[in-house]
Design goal:
- By secondary structure, the chain is an alpha+beta fold.
- It has a single domain, classed as Cytochrome-c3 Hydrogenase, chain B (Orthogonal Bundle), CATH 1.10.645.
- The protein is about 45% helix and about 20% strand.
- The chain is built from 14 helices and 18 strands.
- The strands form six sheets. A four-stranded mixed sheet has the order 1-18-3-4.
Length: about 425
Amino acid sequence: MKTLLTRVEGEGSIVVVEKNGYIDSVVYEITEAPRFFEYIVLGRDMERVVDIVSRVCGLCGVSYSFVAAKAFEKCLGVDVDEKVDMFREAIHLAERVKSHVMHLFYMNLPDLVKTKMFTDFLQRNPEISKHFQNVLLWSRKAMYTLGGRFHNVVNIKIGGVYRFPDRDSVKKLVEELNNVSKSFKEFASFILSIKPPDEYTKRSFNNIHLVSLYSQNSRYPHHNDKLYLDKELYTISEFFRNTVKTSQLPYSTALHYRIKGVESYIVGPLARFNQHYNVLDKEVRAFIEMHGWKPPLNSVLFSYVARIAEIYNTLLILEDYLDKLSKGIELATDTDIHAKSSKLYGTVCEYAVEAPRGILYHRYNVDKEKVVSCDIVTPTAQNLASMSDIATAILRGRKTDTNSIDIAKKIAISFDPCISCSVHTLKVRIVNIN
């Protein structure tokens, strides 16, 4: 039995392994074609690398540029002006809003309201659809105003940015934000009020770890060089170099990440929400709880609740940031990167940022001004093992029927695997091992 999985960014296949007529295991077979970014940057100046890596992902380009700049700044000892860094964070947070709201409408909503496509909902409920469009268009406008583009933004550089928008443009974003926030709350209230299907309520990750970046100064996690594995604090180097082991499985060209090579873990909005709910703005927590939700969210199928909380929280942060930025900001004096980088010999530059889908880790080995090695660990790659483990835990022992296949699809959609750089569709294949 084969079927196409829609509403994901990319392609692969679901393999359902049957034993004696019942599901024994589920595997998400991802065919990740070589993209060569870790090789393209070799021999390049660090400043050029920040722009190049923005092309890795069409949805999360800001995350890639931002984390690369942060990694190089850390090992160069570059202190970025507080307002300049706030400006860069604002670009990155606008990307989070855009990514999350698109996922909610195009991917989550059809399952919740039981329509085949988002276009069916668009015709059935144009008012809620209009609220979604208001949020999406504002987030695109924010990215364009702040970053010069609404995707693959290249306005971030080591030590700062290339340009700032005029003050009136930023003020316009602030003025529009009040109506956008109202639209978001209408859209979010509609989604949170829907009674989820029965399969959503089944606990789906009893033995799977949660990993998110360290929350500093009572802030919701954004970027850092430390992370939480459940309740334990690790440096990103200790975690990605020593704790997590990678494997290349025969059915997939993508790397799979497991703790000690055995245990899977989750990164992304669900992990952030469950681990850092207490530092969300109290207005956000009141909104979530008013609709009958509270942590922990015990099923990955409830990731949409975490995305709603994150959008709300992000809009509040952006309101504060943009208000401050609208009062004026000047370009800081350029740092002499060449003078600083000429002193680097075999230096490791590494950092991590919370991209919309989870922790994005960059590690560069730099010799003078040139990158001599590069390691990029994406959120999707880290979630692949847990996707298969969760689907197997939920579906093992069930008949391979349409409902089981639908659940396997919903699990993949809940993770929002951004595999579009490599593939285009996801088919289901049944393998009998009797």
